Amino acid sequence: MKKICFLFAMHAEAAPLIEKFDLKEEKGFFAPLPPVLYKGEHNGKEIFVVLNGQQNGLDLVGCEPATLTAQLVLSTIRPDLLINAGTCGAFKSKGSAIGDVYLSDKNICFHDRRVGDNGGWYEMGVGFYPCMDATEMADELGFKLGRCTTGSSLDMAAEDLAMITKNEGMLKDMEAAAIAWVAQLHNTPLLCIKSVTDLCDGGRATEEEFRENLSMAAQKLKEACFKVLDYLLK
Ligand code: SAH
User: Whole-angstrom Cα distance, residue 123 to residue 144?
Assistant: First the structure.
């Protein structure tokens, strides 16, 4: 494994990792576009971390920024492995708890693209994009495995839940499938590491629960990224 690049949506999610590896910002690398590149070294290998960047002082969360960032990264840095690290919602009915860390399993779906049911349009909408088989890694490092499912909203409409249930989604986020699509186009393996900030069926207001748990989840995410790197670079 030569070059590994982490993609994050939010600065708060990436901050502990940037600090731990003492990564330095490469100012203007993607100018005039918003993504931001940090670089450093671990075990003699270069580590790349790219954030979607900000507009109007807010992190660019969601599928469009994630698509743009992934395309830029895969056409300039050309990593051997892309890791989408971030936070997610999960389901207590599926055994998840706040602070759990998951690796992506099986394939990656969209849950809010309803473009038809026939002639392959259903599959086109949902995506079912590949991610690397992390079964052994999860087993060795003690992480759970779950299918990531992505949409453009933090809240969950009834139609989204129906799609998540149908496709056995476990981790609800706003970037993974967009990144997975670009990774597939470039034939670059993708792994997602997701730390649970909120429970979609826990009865709490999602944004409030997300805010409350963001910094704890980011710490867990940093530890997980570190373990995964050590596993991949050993
Ligand atoms: N209003 C929020 C905006 C964050 S959006 C704020 O105050 O910061 C949530 C981010 O965390 C996205 O990048 C998404 O990938 C992830 N996320 C965490 N929980 C989520 C959930 N339940 N549904 C969708 N995305 C979630």
Answer: 26
Dist. CA 112 → ligand 1 center (Å) = 15
Residue 112's closest CA among 159, 62, 77?
Answer: 159
**In angstroms, what is the span from residue 12 Cα to ligand 1's centroid?**
11
Pair 233, 139: CB distance under 8 Å = no
Domains identified in the chain and CATH numbers: 3-233 (3.40.50.1580)
231: Cβ below 6 Å to ligand 1? no
Q: What is the pTM for the complete model shown? A: 0.98
List the catalytic residues: 13, 198
- Residue of 69, 94, 210 to test ligand 1 pocket, by largest number of atoms within 8 Å of CB: 210
Residue type for 97, please?
Answer: A
pLDDT by position in tens, the chain (length 234): 689 999 999 999 999 999 999 999 999 999 999 999 999 998 888 999 999 999 999 999 999 999 999 999 999 999 999 999 999 999 999 999 999 999 999 999 999 999 999 999 999 999 999 999 999 999 999 999 999 999 999 999 999 999 999 999 999 999 999 999 999 999 999 999 999 999 999 999 999 999 999 999 999 999 999 999 999 998
